[in-house]
Specification:
The chain has three domains: 3-51, no CATH class; 70-160; 169-249, Alpha-Beta Plaits, CATH 3.30.70. The protein has eight helices and nine strands. The protein has helices at residues 3-16, 22-41, 46-51, 70-81, 153-160, 178-186, 214-222, 233-249, and strands at 84-91, 98-111, 114-121, 128-131, 135-144, 169-176, 193-197, 204-211, 227-231. Helix 1 (3-16) runs antiparallel to helix 2 (22-41). The longest helix has 20 residues, at 22-41.
Length: 252
């Protein structure tokens, strides 16, 4: 191992702690320890000194990764990579009961604090999402899994992740405060975005093509008094309804 590689691993460990469950990080533990030992053993080396002054810090509040049993991760990843069927005991969030399911794995997505297995239940063709931390038991079987030749994980994420219907793109039109305009000027909301100054105001008008999904709506709602949504109309109505509910919580 050389010094740049050790430093890269040192920083990667700090970043991945907010993204991956402990059972997955444990798989990388030997490499991370080797990198730390390498840097600790360097004498009079500026990089080793610098590593203790650099951290990966997420933008906004990060939830702790949902914990996944080591056995579940091992069996699930094996079934996925070896194209084998996976028998699982799954806790449904809607029904709060364990179900025995035979899964044909298609993909795996790590999204914020939760990792999802994408696959179909034996006897059905539709793809579903199974949160790994809700899998209580998993067994990789010898039987081959059905392979979906048309499956493209990037397209699936854009259209179906965390939703029961395809995700459409809409034009967001809103008036935004100077601080939000500055943020989006440096880190655009999408590749199709424009910002125009509003007359007689320090606010700006935002137009951007964005996915019509819950995550984007949460982000917009989180801007609070720093944004006034004009389009889509159903977004503006939803924000107004949420504001009314929020106000009612603080009425005494």
């Amino acid at each position: 191992m050389d010094t740049p590689t050790a430093l890269a691993l040192y920083l990667a460990e700090s970043h991945l702690k907010t993204l991956l469950p402990q059972s997955v990080l444990d798989q990388l533990g030997p490499q991370f320890r080797m990198a730390r030992d390498y840097l600790d053993n360097l004498e009079n080396n500026g990089l080793a000194h610098w590593a203790r002054r650099v951290r990966a810090h997420t933008n906004g509040k990060s939830l702790q990764p949902a914990q996944i049993a080591s056995q579940v991760w091992e069996q699930t990843s094996t079934a996925l990579l070896e194209h084998k069927q996976l028998q699982i005991s799954y806790l449904s969030r809607s029904k709060t009961e364990l179900k025995q399911l035979l899964i044909h794995p298609a993909g795996l997505v790590s999204r914020h604090a939760i990792s999802y297995l994408i696959g179909s239940v034996d006897g059905y063709n539709d793809l579903r999402q199974f949160a790994l931390h809700r899998i209580h038991q998993a067994e990789c079987l010898e039987a081959p899994a059905s392979i979906r030749e048309d499956f493209e994980i990037e397209r699936y994420i854009r259209q179906y992740l965390n939703t029961d219907t395809p995700i459409e793109r809409v034009e967001l039109v809103a008036d935004i405060s100077p601080q939000v305009a500055w943020l989006l000027g440096e880190t655009p909301l999408s590749s199709e975005q424009t910002l125009e100054p509003l007359q007689d105001s320090d606010w700006q008008n935002l137009r951007a093509k964005v996915p019509d999904d819950q995550e984007t709506r949460w982000w917009v709602f989180g801007l609070g008094e720093n944004i006034r949504v004009r389009e889509p109309q159903n977004w503006a109505q939803e924000i107004s309804q949420r504001a009314d509910k929020l106000r009612s919580l603080y009425e005494y």
